[in-house]
């Protein structure tokens, strides 16, 4: 268990190979990717599940959201495997490290590990940082020593390492040696501009290793941080591993600035399944597809269908030539067993959600459906049809369970919806008003009570939510114990512009539960209504009301 | 000029390095990618412009659309550089090649080049093809000899070459030797299942080359066909090139079955700009971005923003950290000059943006703000404040430009919004109705005309869009030339549930423009209204209305 409140004794090195994830920092540099603090905490939990060694959380002090992330992480983030790292830079040129507010913010973040970026390309030292070669070395030495002296583990990211090494290998090597001597636990070789090819990575690391040996730093642990600007981020990381590095940095789903960072998910597959490295337990690797997609949902950048190992098409075969042979021996047509990464072989014309996966899902939810082939077939058909309409049960277990309960005739009905209306309007005086009306009929036996409720809200969905609560409250006061915690909208079929289909996912917590529901429709209000109504139904039912 | 009607004398080998594109055949195996014959012809023209050596058009005889493609290509496709290839298989087991209808269809396609796929993994010969090792060799020899005898150039695709070689290198080599002896111009080593890593590719090709030398086939020209299942399609092709192959197969934009084929666009950049190979004239390479996107439009699979070299984000910078240094020397922060591939460096405006990045962004949009430090400061402050409220300008250049125009006092005002209203309601009969009302006042001098418009829509945003168009149409009929093409909703600050802030991004095209606008508010309707209203304002202004 990692203690995010900060160590009192020096942080011990993590043995073995390091998978270092920087989705929350470098990944957030991707165009269009912006994470709230809550998003970051949710992603961090999934990264921990994925089995990464380090989670880089952001740059405290420089980015206000990141400062808040590290504050909240102390109480809200319990990591079981991963160690949390705060990212920052070496001290300012010409200033004392103890007085540098950026360095102070790193210390205050309270993480066991601090990752420091340092210039290692002399042209950047003089051209961008506008300081001298010597001062840059002193900045590295001072900052690393200071933080190590405070008991922190320090990882040094040597920015522009490869370009710098090609330009002036002596200087670039001296930066690494300085960091090593000052106590850095890992020296990370960064291809910051992303222009390297795999054979160059090999050659440069071999050359560097010889130089480090000569400089008495042959025992330094090396890492690699690669980008995909030549389409070789993963291959460059593999080259580095084969050249002896034992720490790779990347981002889940290859998020990152420009063309992205090395895809950590692909790398895990390659290193473990192709190169035989023992990085995570097999049962953890089998969660990769699920976790990769869950993170894609949170950051609102779905996993591309073509993603290696975890993409929806990664093990999909367009019928024809292969179909009959695949039936004989699927291994002839796949490079690895998709179950190893939790994915499935799929024939594109056949249905996706087979009976087997529904049976497994049911078991996961506590229903034994093994002896009910007809029910499984009906459910598989329903799921297939609703997925075709735009529903996605992957991230909405509660809606799937309601579907299953419905098939079993156990679906609870707390009320019947008679009608609802939501209106937003901008008045002549510039004020924005939103109100909703909900009319329900009670379903209790022998009762024919109607409930009409009206509410104002920040927006139409909020107003509908409040009006629905109001209408349910008298008979089911427990509704007030639930809170809608997250609300995600995805436009499907984007080519139709504002005339598109909308999918809404709602995450609700309360009465000891936390669950997601889904709604779909041509109208964001209707889709939201469906997801919210399901959320109250599910919440009341599962908490025994 | 290639003659697509078929040669009368043996087709001469094309000297130099071969870029072989299979977008029209293997690329079409991608899930969701379906091309009409007209699409295929249009893609082929772009591929020719791109400077590829070969264009594989499809499988005549097996796919009716492909048969038609080759028929129409004879008259409708004038290629200036590329040679057209038809793809097919070796003859059936136990049949005469002259009587094989599949082979006859290949001949009838009338292309100078025929690419034959042959089994080269013994397990596939016996397990999938269900014939003998010897018969498979005879099928290769017979089919290659027959087609070469008809004056065609034959390229042999050795299917499952790498897996086969690892399983039984003797047999796999014997297939290649048989094809070479029968007159095949190129022996293509296919990683059909895509599971290889770069170092394996190198080792296997080196091993194969020694075996070919021994077998007296050391002069054979070798090619490589790689897939991206390990995220290494491009790197594997580069490994193969470094191991001596002189023909690479791939697809534009990395289209292809499962995870896709090697991205030929990325490969062209890597081979020419990083490895110094002289594949196409510099002015052709400078068309790469345009052609890659044009093909993406035709096949209706837009180039991903993260695509190396040609993606919209490939040379985009978000971090404020870099901006001031980029102003000094852009080459410090890019791996190659984006103009070499026809792309551009782009500053992404975010809350990390300082005055330097705003100045650069202004320059990109055609405004010289270098001499206006106060304006830059005001704009930087506005951007920071609005980003804190939830706006995001990184994907909304048009909204940023409106902000800038506003600071410059140049913002156009086409009308004043008096009020609007959007209502969604579910009636007792279960029907869903949505309508919107928009009231505008004209801003034209001396006019005080009011416009009141009402519209029904699929959802409140669609209804508002339609009502706004209706209200603007009479004075500005150009509004109908714009189409809202994409609509993205992001909930910020998710822990507030339905009481959260909403950000809407709208992509609009029309009148030769394509741009994005952003709106923010507690209400999805209000945020959408803002983004749509900005879209019409921007579109009308930029197109000179």
From TrEMBL, chains A, B:
Pathway: Amino-acid biosynthesis; L-isoleucine biosynthesis; 2-oxobutanoate from pyruvate: step 1/3. One of its GO terms (molecular function) is 2-isopropylmalate synthase activity. InterPro entries: 2-isopropylmalate_synth_dimer (IPR013709), AIPM/Hcit_synth_CS (IPR002034), Aldolase_TIM (IPR013785), Citramal_synthase (IPR005675), LeuA/HCS_post-cat (IPR054691), LeuA_allosteric_dom_sf (IPR036230), PYR_CT (IPR000891). Residues 17-292 form the Pyruvate carboxyltransferase domain. Its EC number is 2.3.3.21. It is an enzyme of class 2 (transferase). Signal peptide: none annotated. Belongs to the alpha-IPM synthase/homocitrate synthase family. NCBIfam families: citramal_synth. This is Citramalate synthase. It comes from Brachybacterium aquaticum.
